[in-house]
Structures are given as C-alpha cells and as structure tokens.
Amino acid sequence: MLVIALSHVTGAYAESSEKEESAPQEEVKRIYRTVDEFGNVIFTDERVPGAIEVRVRESNTVPGTAPADLNAPIPDQEEDAPFVRYRTLAVTSPGNEEAVRANNGDITISVNILPAPQDEHLIELLMDGGVVGEVDGTTGVSLQNVDRGEHVARLRVKDRRTGRVLQTGPSRTFYVLRASRLN
Q1: Is the same domain home to 95 and 140?
Q2: Same domain membership, residue 100 and residue 144
Q3: Which residues contact 66 (CB under 8 A, 6 or more apart)?
Q4: 17 in a domain, yes or no?
Q5: Which of 36, 71, 68, 70 is nearest to 50 (CA)?
Q6: Whole-structure pTM over 0.85, yes or no?
Q7: Residues 94 and 134 placed together within one structural domain of the fold
C-alpha cells in the first residue's frame, strides 16, 4: 500500500476528479486523495471511504544530453591548404592535478606551443569548456578572480579566416585554493 501524506501541496501535477470515468483504462495504478481530521492531504493507491480519484497528468520530460568529452580528439577536417599540426600544444603550468594557492584568484596559465603560432591561426585558452583568453606567442595567459575548486584547461587552434577548429591540445586539471570566511 502506498500512502503519501502532505500538509501543504504546491505545484500539483494532479487534478482531483469526483466522477469515475466509464471507459476502462489500461493497467495503470490509480491514486486516491483524502483529507484526514487534522487537514492533512493523504494520497494512497488503495480506495478508502470518502477518497477522490486523482487523474495524474503525464509529467514533462526533457531528454538529457551527454556532457562534452574534453579529452576527445578533434577530427581532422579537410581544408584548402594542408594543415600542419603543432608538435606541442600544451598547458605547462599549473601542473596536472596541482593545487595552486591564490587567495585573490589571480593565476597565470603557462603554455608550450611548437612550432611558433602561425599568423593565420588563433590560439585560444579554454577553461572548464569556455574560452577565457587568447594566447599571444608562447608564454601564457594571466587570469583574474578565478573561482576556487577544480578547473580543466586546454589549448585550441582555430583558423582566423573560417573559425574552424584545427587542433586541440590535451586537458590539464588543476585546483585553485582560496581563503574563505567559511573555513
């Protein structure tokens, strides 16, 4: 027997109905609603004296999407001129799985790009799946007010003319430690 007692119901997905439908329904569990002597609303799957059958509407559902795999390689794409991949396209600092103490949240992401970036390529720094800066040369990017906790950084090469992603470097996970009033 299923019994749910509620003292207050909000945002109901059910409608009460005092009349029984004459058409036979499929083998669906029926839900009944009663109110006890203290004013509490009780839902049950057994018919009790004074109970009203509740018609339960189908709930709204939205299919989920799979999270993006940050470590998945980007497939090579055909283009006008052959693209020569960078031998090295990596975040070098902070180290992988490194904890960085930065109470103000200011950190520097160092990178290594070989050969040197070409003028027709845009080198972007991605952090936690979003673009946080453009890498000029081969030094890195300074970031301000980075939240504490786990972060994933990687580099991405795009064609400046078409915006097409040409290459993505490996991910690097690091942790920012910041002082908190809570702990």
Answers
A1: yes
A2: yes
A3: none
A4: yes
A5: 36
A6: no
A7: yes
Same domain assignment for residues 173 and 92: yes
Nearest Cα neighbor of 133 from 146, 120, 148 is 146
Q: How far is CA 159 from CA 6, 68, 83, 116, 182, in A?
A: 59, 22, 10, 15, 45
Judging by beta carbons within 10 Å of its beta carbon (0-12, 13-18, 19+), is residue 138 exposed, middle or buried?
A: middle
* 130 inside domain: yes
- Is residue 65 assigned to a domain? no
Within a domain: 15: yes
How many structural domains does the chain have? 2
Q: Residue 123's domain spans which residues?
A: 88-177
Average pLDDT in the 2-14 region?
45
Is residue 141 within 8 Å of residue 96, measured between CB atoms?
no
pLDDT tens, residue by residue, 137-180: 767 888 999 998 999 999 999 998 899 999 999 999 999 998 87
Looking at the fold, whether 51 and 92 belong to one and the same domain comes out as: no
User: What DSSP assignment string belongs to 116-169?
Assistant: PPPTTEEEEEEETTEEEEE--TTSEEEE-SPPSEEEEEEEEEEETTT--EEEE-
Q: What is the pLDDT of residues 114-123, one digit of tens each?
A: 888 888 899 9
Report the alpha-carbon angle 70-86-143, nearest 5.
55
Tokens of 47: 């018919």
Q: Which two tokens stand for residue 101?
A: 């103490």
